[in-house]
Amino acid sequence: MHRFLATAGLLGLGLVPSVSWAETINLTLRNGDSLQGELIERNPENGTTVLNHPQLGRLELTADQLKPAETKPPWTSSVSAGVIGNEKDGDNSLSVSFTGKTRYKDEQQKLSLSGSFNASKSKDSGEPLSIDTEKGSAELRYDKPIGSNFDLFALSSYQYNGTNDSGVNTVLGNIGVAFPLLKSETTELTISIGPSLQWSGGGISCASDSFCGNSYGGATLTADLSWKPWPTLQFGLQSQFTTVWANEIQPANTLTAEVRYYPAETSKLFTTLRVQSIYQSMNTPELNNTITAQVGADF
């Protein structure tokens, strides 16, 4: 089973289009009108931008014709949370989730920090309390652009699953190169690859598990896609595929998908649906899935 998932993960991450991407941009003129088309050329020396408009054809616009771009703040952050409770005929359930992200970006470097927590408990009438879900994660990543085509990066991630029999805690360290394959005002696609070191431990069955409590070397391949088709709608998809050598190849994959909706273009508030699937061949159980609905804010 894990060989099939390993192959599927590699194929999914390897499906990178071989054709060149045409960057679609939106330009705002000083009079307030906007133009959308494919970017042909941008000259930083004289400030001209050449655009292929679907109706008007090739347009060459000077800096005096364009509205100056707004300076984006280097720090961007967001927090979101969700709570669901239910009580019926003496049966009770409660689910709590939290997600936080912060990012710093300038021309010289990028730094991102994210974390999440998800717990659900239930109690049937006359039965003891049951902990159904108790998960958490944190990731710290630093990117240093080397050229226009690739970055150097280092990351450290931590995953916690309190209901696992073995592998309650999993730590991953990864360094390597990152390739921004697609970058526009609405879409970003980055592929990162490099050597990694993974450790997992904890759980009631850890002492009898041959993998638990040990560190293994391997490699990690990450695909990160962000797409904002409209100002009020945003999609995010990340797949982090890791293979380590422990007697034989042991795969792992963390797939995270997120949809955000903003009620208005200028709104800082949003609702989000987050789906996460974690496959770890050296943990027990191997597969764990969660779906959370949250409300949050950008700042």
Structure summarized in a few sentences:
This protein is mainly beta.
Walk me through the structure.
The protein has 299 residues and is mainly β. It has one helix at residues 2-14; strands spanning 24-28, 34-42, 49-53, 57-61, 75-88, 91-105, 110-123, 130-145, 151-161, 169-183, 187-201, 215-230, 233-246, 248-261, 269-280, 287-298. Helix content is 4%, strand content 64%. The protein has 2 domains: 1-71, SH3 type barrels (Roll); 73-298, Porin, CATH 2.40.160. The strands form 2 sheets. The chain has a 12-stranded antiparallel barrel with strand order 5-6-7-8-9-10-11-12-13-14-15-16. A 4-stranded antiparallel beta sheet has the order 1-2-3-4, with no helix packed on it. Strand 8 (130-145) and strand 9 (151-161) form a beta hairpin. The chain is built from 1 helix and 16 strands.
**β content, as a range?**
over 45%
The major β-sheet equals: 12 strands, antiparallel, barrel
CATH fold name of the largest domain, please? Porin
Number of contiguous helices: 1
Q: What is the level 1 CATH name of the largest domain?
A: Mainly Beta
In round numbers, the mean pLDDT is: 88
Indicate the CATH architecture of the largest domain. Answer: Beta Barrel
Question: Radius of gyration in whole Å, from Cα?
Answer: 23 Å
Strand order of the largest sheet: 5-6-7-8-9-10-11-12-13-14-15-16
Q: Report the count of strand segments.
A: 16
Shape summary: flat
Low-confidence stretches: 1-20
Whole-number tally of structural domains: 2
- How does the helix and strand content classify structurally? mainly beta
Query: Would you list the SSEs in sequence order as H and E?
Result: HEEEEEEEEEEEEEEEE
End-to-end gap: 43 Å
Superfamily at the CATH H level of the largest domain? monomeric porin ompg
Helix content: under 10%
